[in-house]
Structures are given as C-alpha cells and as structure tokens.
Amino acid sequence: MVTTECARETLLLIANRKFCRHIIASSPLTAMAFFDAMTEQEKYRISIGQFAANLSTEALINKDSMLYHEDEGYYSGLIGYVKPFSNALFGNFELVEALGSSNNSPLDINYQSRSLWDAAQTEAYGRAILITFKSYLEGDNWGTHSYALYRAFNDIQGVCSDVYKLDGVETGFYSTDIYQRLSEVVDFIKHAIDLLEKYKEKVHTKWRRREARQPLQGDLSDVLAEIMVEVIFNASTVKSPVDTCWTIHRNTVWSAFFRSYNRDMYKLMEFKLRRLLYNEIALERMNYKSARILGLCLNVMGLHVGKKSGYGSEEYALRKVILAWTKKNFLTLYARLPDVAETAIMGSITFDKENNRLVKTYLKGLSREAPKEFLDLDPPRNV
Hints:
Blueprint: H1 2-13, H2 17-26, H3 28-41, H4 49-61, H5 73-76, H6 78-82, H7 84-90, H8 93-100, H9 111-114, H10 119-138, H11 147-158, H12 177-198, H13 220-236, H14 242-257, H15 264-281, H16 288-301, H17 316-336, H18 338-343, E1 349-352, E2 357-361, E3 372-376
Antiparallel strand pairs: 1-2, 2-3
Helix pairs in contact: 2-3, 2-4, 3-7, 10-11, 10-12, 11-13, 12-13, 12-14, 12-15, 13-14, 13-15, 13-16, 15-17
C-alpha cells in the first residue's frame, strides 16, 4: 500500500505545469515513454490524467514542440507520416477515454489556455482530436459514449465564437486571426466527416431523430451536426458589409458543409444539418439566435426555390421549407417582435416595408441595374 501511494503521489507530482513545459521543450521522448508504457500494459485508469492534460496543453502552447513538427507528411517528411509523439498521446482511444472519464484526458485543455489560441494552435488541436477520433472509428466503439471526444468536439467549436468582431469590417479580414481560426474549425469538421466516410461501414446512426435532443445524447455524428449549426450561427453574427458577409457565410462556411459529391457520410451530415437548421428556425417563439440563422440561410440560398437537381441540389429541400416558412411567418414575426425580425436582415437581403417583401440584390456587374430577387410575404396573423 505504501508503494502504491508513493507511486500515485509521484504521478501527481510530475503533473506540475513547469515540469511538463520542460519535458515538451527538452525531452518529448520522456512523455512518449509514459504513454507507450500505458498502452503496452493496458494500464489506463491511473493518476496520470493531470500530467496528460498539462503535457498536451504545453505542447500546444510551444509552437516548436513535436506536435507542430508532425503535421502532414508532405510538409514534415517521414515524421509527419509516422507521428510518434501525436500517436503516443492521442492515438489510443481507450487510453484517452479512460483518462477523460475524470476530465483529464490529453484532449482536455482548460478554458484559459483555449481562449488564447491562434489559428496554428487551433489547427494543431484539431489534428490531435482527429487522431483520437480515427482510433475510435477503427475499433468497435461506435455507439459507445465518449466523454473525451464529446468535450473536444465542442471545445474546438468554441474557438471561433468571436467571429462577431468581424461585423462591419470591409477589408483585410482574411488576414485576421479570427477569420483564420474560423477556417481551421471548418476544416476540422470537413476532416472529421472524411473520417466518417473512410470508416462508414462502422457508422450506424439514425438519420432522423424525432425525440428531443438532450446534451450528451445521440452519437458523434449528431454532435458533429450540432457543431456545424453553432459554426453557422457564429458566422451569422456578421451582418455587413455585403462582400464580407458573402465570403464568411457562403464561401467559408456554407459551401464547406453542403458539398456531398455523392459521398454517403456527407449526404448523411447534410440531412442532419438541414433538419437542425429548420428546427432552429421554426421555433414556436423565434429568438435572436434563430433569426440570425434564418438571415444567413436567406443570404446564401436566395429567395427563389430553384430546381431540385443540378447546382445547389444539396440545399434544395432546406431552401424550399425555409422560404415557405419565411413567406408565411416573417410579417407576423415583424409585427410581434420587430427587433428579432430585423436581426434576420443581413448581407444582400433587405426588407421592403412598403411592398411587404424581402429583396435580395446581386452584384451589378456589366448590367445596367443590379439583378434582384423578391419574396412576397403573407399578411401578419392574429396580431
């Protein structure tokens, strides 16, 4: 018992942040030895969780750490293909999940550290999550609730929660760290769906969930779809100018999420995303969040239903139901909650109050007048 207690206290002692900082900077092989030994002996439920969390935190802070030298092999050579450090810390799902059950896995980075991340650190964290997610999919784990991955998926989404600061910015937003972090989060989501596609024979999920979703329910495809909704909401906090809105709304976010190219898992995620977006908008009592999501949908999809096939077919079903809902309910919403309704007016969409219609104005180009689309709105009800 004395030996066991001493061993436990030693593991707690090496969790010191300063010690972890020196390991990452000077002796990453020491960190790898700990985790490789745990994997070999299958000893996961020991008091090493805080050491693991602090090691990965310091690895993300130090941009000269092994973690940053193990990006794609095209850029890093052999070490980028083998990824010895990354695989030691993040490549064993059972190890990560066992430590994550006590909120101290290598993926559990505290909020104070995450709030200071830039785009490069966001990308590195996303790679770490994907390594664990790949290990999860390779095993017979689908349907098993993963506390570590659920938290990590939500944590990386939160890194782009300050996109609203780009509202009103006309030029130069491409080079801002805010925009680059948003792009990294979107890329992470795409890579996660690519992994679902690669291991699609192991993914068994309900396409349609009729029951009300509760936190930490459903499988990881549902969690990923909800993160996509949150990223769309973050993007919708940018309302002007028109060009900035279009770049962030359509080019950066929307086109990345609706691009199935007949791949099964992308079609699955598009279906789940369409349902979540419509459910968010068609609330009995719309709020500012749902109004912003409606505004982004109208801005990127336009005011005409269009054709069911060809370009834009992935969003046809959503466009059809959202335009029908908007036509029927917008003036009623405006009469009851004008501030909420005004929140949905963004980008190239304007509200023509005199004629009770929404107007989308396209770039003028070489035309005499800028092309426009109109959506005539039904009269308000029971106001």
